[in-house]
Amino acid sequence: MTRKLFLYVTIILISSCASVEKYNQQISKAHSPEELRRDVDYAYKKLKKLHPDVNWYISKDELDKKITDLKNQLTEPLTAKEFYKLFAPVITSIKQGHLSIHTPSKRQTKKELKGKGKRDSPFNSLSFYTSGNKLFIKKVFKGDTALVAGSEVISVDGKKVSDLLDSFKILHASDGYNKTFLPKFVGSRFGFFYSNTHKQNDSILLHLKLDDSLYDKYLYANYDKIKASSEKQTVSLEKRKLSRSDKKIAKETQKKIRKKNYKYGYSKKTNEYNRNFSFFKSDTGTPIGYLKIRSFSSGGYKEFYKESFAKIDSARCKNLVLDLRDNLGGRLVEIDDLYSYLTDKEYVFIEKSKMTGRLSFLYPFFHSKSLPTKTAAIILSPVLGLYQIFKVKKENKEAYFKFKHSKLRKPKSNTFTGKVYVLINGESFSASSILSTHLKSTKRATFVGEETGGAYNGTVAGIYAKVELPNSKINMRVGLMRINAPYAIKPDGYGIKPDIPIKEIMNNEDEGLQWIIKDIKMINKKE
């Protein structure tokens, strides 16, 4: 065992020392048709090995034909980005929203990292949204203060935005046949798709329109070492001015801030909290609770929900609004915890998760690009293997992973029994859709807005394997578990439909929320 371990670690160390220059040359050059066909075969082989439901929405014969047609189309040398534009649409035909493809990025040399630090995409300074086939700046996080939120982006480096958005929509998929997810997703992830399809540059020119005025602005890549150096200098100067007692107070203040940031899931990039709770005033005197959850990830959710529902209980709140718009998902444990406050009955949160094999769960660890992760996986392989044997069971020749959420669960003692409204849209996806499935199927909530991007009948996600194609170095993210609530509808492949359909319009009026407030007032008058 010791000799094998030494051999594995030696191989990993040697492979990790491959030159950055060689890698950058590999991803920039044109690859022969034979190399690209081998990449297609490699990708399809890995998909069938790892993905538990490749043929959920597409038949084997239909997918086989698409793979064959793609290989026949590869007759000339192509770069990774050129190949991606042909390869991604075939993978998106599988109609799995968590199955994603992205092109490799140039790696920085040690000299570049030492001089400037880690590079940050120019697009990371902004967030975007779409309305129709138009793109708008939603928020400016950092950079040029002359950039104005609400500005329409007409073109990027001379390319029409409408053409770019159309081309991006075939490079990703929603779950099943849903139509609300992609129009919003390609807008909010515009920078991701642009970087996948265009040459990496440190500056990008935006042609913008605000009211009747046109203006041009450049976005620039940021390098963390330069930024960190200026921030460190500023903090250092501020510290020198503080007395000992002031430093102690500042330290305690920072501790409280860190605690709050953890509980609410603070995002440094967006300067927002993942979780927010507040009350709206009501004509009846009892307030309306409002939970805005931007993501079920990051931070200490347990303390947040415990605190929020204690406030709801104390205020004798009768109406609760759960806002899941633009919530792309997150942790299963968090949505289970939230649901336990919204039901007064015992429940099973998800069914056992189908996998392709008993040990496929371990694939991401043994094929990680991280040397510490891969080394730890090798060292702990006997323990990990034993864990999988106990957690994954074979039923009718299929492997199923049993989460604790697959067992009978109990609601919280202070569960909310009042009326629940849920705001949803096309980017209510993944975990937020699983939670919505429970609330919809048990008739626990009134849904307002647009059909969710995530499917009612579940998705393939959980743990992900990152597969790198050997020649083009394109990366493919593959979900390893089929995750679904113990409820299903027909026809399959659609999201949770709203009880009150309200199409989102980008203006200052939140029509969905306004409808809910009016409905509560109307019910209160009748009572």
Structural class assignment = alpha+beta
Structural shape: globular
Q: Total number of β-strand segments?
A: 24
Major sheet description: 6 strands, antiparallel
CATH fold-level assignment of the domain at 264-352 and 404-454 and 497-526: 2-enoyl-CoA Hydratase, Chain A, domain 1
Radius of gyration: 25 Å
Instruction: Report how far the terminal alpha carbons are from each other.
Output: 74 Å
The CATH architecture of the domain at 264-352 and 404-454 and 497-526 comes to Alpha-Beta Complex
The CATH superfamily of the domain at 264-352 and 404-454 and 497-526 is known as: 2-enoyl-CoA Hydratase, Chain A, domain 1
Low-confidence stretches: none
Number of helical regions: 18
Helix content percent band: 40-55%
* Quaternary organisation: single chain
- CATH class group of the domain at 264-352 and 404-454 and 497-526: Alpha Beta
Mean pLDDT: 89
Percent in strands: 15-25%
Short description:
By secondary structure, the protein is of the alpha+beta class. Among the domains are: 119-223, Roll (Pdz3 Domain); 264-352 and 404-454 and 497-526, 2-enoyl-CoA Hydratase, Chain A, domain 1 (Alpha-Beta Complex); 355-401, no CATH class. The strands form 7 sheets. Strands 3, 4, 5, 6, 7 and 8 form a 6-stranded antiparallel β-sheet that branches.
